[in-house]
Amino acid sequence: MERAMNFQKLKYAVVVADSGSFREAARRLFMAQSSLSTAIRELEEMYDLQIFERTKRGIFITEEGSEFLSYARDVLSQVSVMENRYLDADRKKLFSVSSQHYDFVSEAFAVLVANDEDRAHHYRLLETSTTDVMENVKNAYSEIGILYMNAYNQKVIKQYLNHNELSYTEIGAFQPHVFVGKQHPLADRESLTQADLLAYPSVTFEQTQGSSAQLTEEALDLGEDSTQSTIYVSDRATSINVLVKTDAILVGTGILTSPFRDMMTTVPITDVEDNHIIYIQNKYRKLSSEAERFIGILNDQLNDVIGSADS
């Protein structure tokens, strides 16, 4: 017999066990006792076990029936959670975005949440490694992901996206900058070259173990040209503290949001190509209204920053 899961029959078995008799269970379920008895026998045949021992004194739960009912209760509990989550017409939808570690993304996220006056959604922002950003979108844990792409990493990123049926759209282009503390020796420079950076330790965000070196989050890889130490961090708060209190540098977009302008500054690097901020999504899935609003906020912020830098 085909063992297709039948949640209704599982419920019948649990009600019989809780009621102590088929008669009482049938009354609680508003069904004929004969129909209930038939359903339980079909369930027992389906799983090739005896859940209840039927005697003149009533019914008793067998040893294997007790174990089966334990699993049945767990299954029904999970089904109830799922139905409450997805069949409730008034339930709040979740908007989730994964991103590399960018101040402007968290600021746009905060604006999106603040504009939801009706509190109609749940929200989740995950700042994580490059690989995990792509994995989260692939597995539908996040609807969109925010990354940068340039000549150095685009082959690896495009290969991953194509293989996993993801697409990308450019939001904006930026000239790589160095983030440094206000007291850093390079803080007052109008521009820098790659050679200027080699004398200083660099901050880099930790990546997923085993991922390609081309998936580094920093917009410039100094690699073996630098003899200085590398400081690996996993969150923006630590990176900011290190930059403010040491002579370390961090290469990135140059976009510095207002809370950090009193502590840090950015200086453009002139001898490298532009980088591109992109968002990725499932190529077959239409973006939700919240995702479109979020991307609109990101576009506005990047246009303001890039426009003011060009003027």
TrEMBL record:
GO molecular function terms noted in the UniProt entry: DNA binding; DNA-binding transcription factor activity
Protein name: LysR family transcriptional regulator
Keyword DNA-binding: yes
Cross-referenced InterPro entries: LysR_HTH_N, LysR_subst-bd, WH-like_DNA-bd_sf, WH_DNA-bd_sf
Gene3D superfamilies reported for this sequence: 3.40.190.290, Winged helix-like DNA-binding domain superfamily/Winged helix DNA-binding domain
Keyword set, alphabetical order: DNA-binding, Transcription, Transcription regulation
HTH lysR-type domain span: 5-62
GO cellular component: a single term: protein-DNA complex
Keyword Amino-acid biosynthesis carried by entry: no
A Pfam family per the record: LysR_substrate
Top-rank lineage group of the source organism: Bacteria
Membership in a protein family: Belongs to the LysR transcriptional regulatory family.
PROSITE patterns: HTH_LYSR (PS50931)
